[in-house]
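PROTOCOL LOG
Step 1. Enter all chains and additional molecules of the complex.
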Amino acid sequence: MSFTRRSALAASAAAVATLGAAPLSRARAQANSIRIGVLNDMSGPYRDISGPYGVACTKQAVAEFGAQGFNVEVINADHQNKPDVGAGLARQWYDQGVDLILDVPTSSVGLAVAQVAAEKNKAYINTGSATSDLTGSQCKPTTIAWMYDTYMLAKSTGGAMVRTGGDSWFFITADYAFGHALERDTTGFVKAAGGEVKGAVRYPFPATSDFSSFLVQAQSSRAKVIGLANAGADTVNCIKQAAEFGITRRGTKLAALLMFLADVHALGLQTAQGLVLTESFYWDLSDRTRAFTRRVLPHLNGAYPNMASAANYSATLHFLKAVKDMGVAAAKVSGTAIVDRMKAIPCDDDAFGPGSIRVDGRKLCPSYLFEVKSPAESKAPYDYYKLLGTTPAGEAFRPLNEGGCSLVHA
Amino acid sequence: MLDAIEAFLGVPAPLLFGQLLLGLINGAFYAMLSLGLAVIFGLLNIINFTHGAQFMMGAFAAWMLLAWAGLGYWWALLLSPLIVGFTGVILEKLFISRLYKLDHLYGLLLTLGLGLIIEGVFRNEFGSSGLPYRIPDELQGAWDLGFMFMPIYRGWVVVAALFFCIATWLVIEKTRLGAYLRAATERAELVQAFGINVPRMITLTYGAGVALAAVAGVLAAPIYSVNPQMGSNLIIVVFAVVVIGGMGSILGSIITGFGLGIVEGLTKVYYPEASATVIFVIMAIVLLARPAGLFGRA
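Step 2. Run joint prediction.
Step 3. Record the structure below.
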């Protein structure tokens, strides 16, 4: 059989499309051991937010929890930000005796895995997907969302922007579940405060790297604030190109609705200074967060923990506490039972401090509004944020009765 | 009059001019990358899927030169293509040169695999969120064009890309060296009989194609995030550009690169959701109507 140039090209397209995940094969779990599967992006735009650091923080929690009469094994895999790959891996893991799936960034994947966990009655703690639907219209008795969601980001960052005079908005939105949820929740706060939304563009994710066209469209709408309803490398590119096109110099403000410490690091303080953003964890927040950071830092290959990787630590500790509380055998039987136990006992750890988990699966913690320091203000590696304000745990998230979660009235 | 135009276009005219210009700038990257691919395919018959990784290496080399050796943008523009081109020469000598007698598919699989390995190594070493690289001081700032605020650096990108495109085209079509190259692709034995070292010429051609990708990488470093996956987003689009222009056609890839940049820019105004797919729709139509591409020889 001979190949023409064109058939070779067609084959090349197919080769790219079928680069799927390699199947995992593991021995079946033993009765007295707990298996935690960290499922996240190890190779794409969200890798540095959690990825290998999320895995390291999970292992840190396991090491600190210590020997309590049962073994804990941590495995991990790359979902490549694809819902079908993520759901397939989750199904396989749960069938192979994984007791908890953790992390799962990218809201489209996060929602797909929630479905699988509920179907299999297995525990699922999400520390990566921001969509507030995880604890709203798509909440499940087996799901917990740990440290943030689009509502909390919209309220903190969006609310702060509106209060300082940013009453007209234009959104640049990643065209998938997360971007839509973030745009929707922020729009709610802008309108509630009497502001208006002048328009939005939805760009293909993750195939876009030039945002200049959208930034110029946003600017010509004459909106005072450009809301970036995206994350990771997309946000970094937007901010970089907005600076290049002089958008911020001419008075238009950028609202980076979701930004992590790693993104600020990637931008450099020269470009990022003055940005306002929200996280629920920062390494330099208190003695406890600094102590946690000191312990985990040797395992992070030079990076610092942010709210996503720290949430893996916090969630793993709480999960193991619940397992110990109810016994390994009982914990392995039902995901709903272990999640109910996690909701019943109080949380407390060095990264997030004391907290609790609501009936809809929403973990409550304070949200912190930060401003990025200027290069002159930054004295040490990753000394990037100054605290502008704190929203207490009780007010940071969407009120329980507004989310439309079926568990609330059950 | 202007109102009538605006009513017809559906968007304000200044916005549209701005988008055309931005499309042209993106087209400059497509043109430079597809040019390198066209040179390599035209002269070596290799579908170089490592091209995206080599574009990324160009940007990383610029960052390394600055961070580790203190050499700025202009030095990077000179040295990065040389360094990355040299790695291309090694790849060609070690691996690719063994595949010339085999089917295209083998070259494609090899280069795709090499590209994935290179990206993986960079991701392991530098993470995925990218590294900062500033616009050089000489090219900071912007011109106010009335309808749009035009960063000087983007203007420079278009000028530089045009320069490299035209220079490459001239070398291949109008010089004696180019004539040797073209002759060697047709009848390698005959050219060799005249005392020309054909294998070396092929190796250097691959190096030059790779160096073109690296130049594009250096040009891209200040405006895109310098991260390991920056090439893989672009490379599939660039392959579509090459197919539309006609595989191996140098002039075709240049014109198609700029043209499709503009088409994509317009799509971003009228229907942004489709901006990643429009080029593939055009590719499908062109392949149905003219299987050899717009400028290809059937």
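Step 4. Note key features.
Chain B has one domain: 24-289.
The mean pLDDT of chain B is 88.
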